[in-house]
Amino acid sequence: MVSDITTEERFCGGCGFVISERIQDSGAEWRSFSKEEYDGRSRAGSPTSLAKHDMGLATIIGHENKDSAGKPLSSSMKSTIKRLRTWDGRSQAHESADRNFIQAFSELGRLKDKLTLSDAVMEKTAYIYRKALGKSLVRGRSIPAMIAASLYLACRNSETPRTLTEVAQKINIKRKEVSRCYRLLLRELDLKMPVADPIKCLSRIASKAGLSEKVKRQALTILRDANEMEITAGKNPMSLAATALYLSCEMSGEKITQKVIAQAAEVTEVTIRNRYKGLKESLKT
């Protein structure tokens, strides 16, 4: 069915039969031509989110000292509203769990900008962290380390190519500590992580190394052949993707050093050389 707001009709998209006339417009009664204009005219709040300490359900007292008619408040009313605003902010974080969520999700917001992650990954991370807090797994442990481990779990679950080393560096915590929290969450929450696909890492490494589209397509064919031969199991997906790109560069005649690809994939040159030998021999047979 197709709805035409101009003619106020709802009709079949295949045959054009008009099903109903004079339909009601359920949209807004105002128009906007930019995001700023939309935000200024919208009277609805932000959607609920697990990545907010109150899930986006709490209300706040605005900072504009004006009444409903737009007139400025008197000096006595300003002091009263200021006091109410202070107590309103304090009342929203009076429990230890709320204070924990505020600190954890502020760290999560910073990580989102640094790692350029989607809202779906943020929601999954907040869900895992809330489960961990509910089982008292955060008690006695570093909040940034736990939120970093939850984020890495969410990336693995959604097949978003982010390494544990990268997450640890962005949040400025030792990799060993984040890894310990990651194993704890896996064990205590009984989570099953999908096997990481090296194909998902190709575009990211190729973009960092400045490789051509032809090299990427050939590397994609190499990895697909390797998956069919079942020689990718148990190996680091980033190192496999980097090796496939290096092998593709050799086959297409594009000159690049192992060091450049290793730095783009955040692995060592020795790892690429070891994977290169096994991958080349397997593809020959």
Summarize the structure.
With 285 residues, this protein is mainly α.
Give a structural overview:
The chain has 285 residues and is mainly alpha-helical. Among the domains are: 96-188, Orthogonal Bundle (Cyclin A, domain 1), CATH 1.10.472.10; 199-284, Cyclin A, domain 1 (Orthogonal Bundle), CATH 1.10.472.10. The chain contains 12 helices and 3 strands; from the N terminus they run E-E-E-H-H-H-H-H-H-H-H-H-H-H-H. The chain has a 3-stranded antiparallel β-sheet with strand order 1-2-3, with no helix packed on it.
**CATH hierarchy, class of the domain at 96-188:** Mainly Alpha
Beginning-to-end CA distance, first to last residue: 55 Å
Percent of residues in beta strands?
A: under 5%
| Rg over CA atoms | 27 Å
Strand order of the main beta sheet, please?
1-2-3
Number of helices in the DSSP assignment: 12
Q: Determine the fraction of residues in helical runs and give it as a percent range.
A: 55-70%
Provide the structure class: mainly alpha
Low-confidence residue ranges = none
* Corresponding CATH architecture of the domain at 96-188: Orthogonal Bundle
